[in-house]
Design brief:
The chain is mostly helical and 389 residues long. It contains 17 helices and 3 strands.
Amino acid sequence: MIEQNNPFIVEQIAKRNKKGERFEYIALSALMICIAFLTFFLYTLIKDGLPAFKQAYVKVEFTLSQEIIKNPYSAVSSQLRPLVSRAWLRNLPARVKNDKIEIGQSVSYWALSSSQTDQYIKENYNKLTDNQKNLVDDMVKNGLIKQQFNGLFFKTGDSKIPESAGLLSAAIGTIMTMLVTMSLALPLGVATAIYLEEFAKDNKFTQFIEININNLNAVPSILFGLLGLAVFINIFGVPRSSPLVGGMTLALMSLPVIIVSSRSALRAVPATIRQAGFGLGLTKLQIVKDHVLPLAMPGILTGSIIALAQAMGETAPLMIVGMIAFVPDAPETITQAATVMPAQIFTWSGMPERMYVEKTSAGILVLLTIMLVLNSVAIYLRKKFQRKW
């Protein structure tokens, strides 16, 4: 009776609270679904990718002869030949030459195993016959086959022989491409943001520019690839498949993000800093260069690093400018043909051999690690130099 006469108790409150609780449960369910998908994604990547960091090696013993130098495949018996990598046997003459092995000298090597042998040891699908499997089992028991860290994955470039394929050429191509991107996008983006935020007058032209910059953030990345193909390659003749054209294309894609984040960082600097500068008789350039820009630099760096990390993971625009090609050797200059890590991973994902599956996952793990490091650096810079007003 008392509650019914109390004007502060509304009957609909209980109903509203229940609605609020249901909405909270729905939001929590959405979060849990996202976490479940992310966990499943990471679990699949780690499960498939970690085995790629180990590689099987076969102990091979032979006496060097002229026949082996002419035909390195004769260094091992026909029974053992399917277990050893063709790439290793093919490079055997160069290896014995570097090791200064003389004719008639007996040597033993831990030879790179074939992909089928490696996959059998890892209990994956393979095409070894029963006799070959029995031979592998016996050799493992006798210590003639062992697994060790797969350094070749980081020391070699792409290869049509799965066990010999690595990330080196793609990693160097990625570094060169990102250097070109950074050297173009960072100064252009920051300078544009400074002009629009500090010097440009507020008129229809600048408003038109601002709207277009904001809209460019939503443009699909593949369109930047088409722009790079049409302008940089077809008009200016920049070498196709090179880090130069890839970096210029990614710079176009990164510019809107860098400009918007830099403008936000400049806008976050209190107006009192500028007013104090004018009060002391400083020019606009002195205020921006000596006071506003240093204070906004943590935010500018954070946005720039995130933009470059995003560009590093892009594949579509680089495919358009030809960086999806098979490039086994690392480029030496920014005008040579190269590929990048996302394109390399994409190529491996379409290969039929089972070993490329684990190499694809391992490549994604390496790329994710680099991007996490870059994002961690961005967070560190923001925390370290951030000023609270």
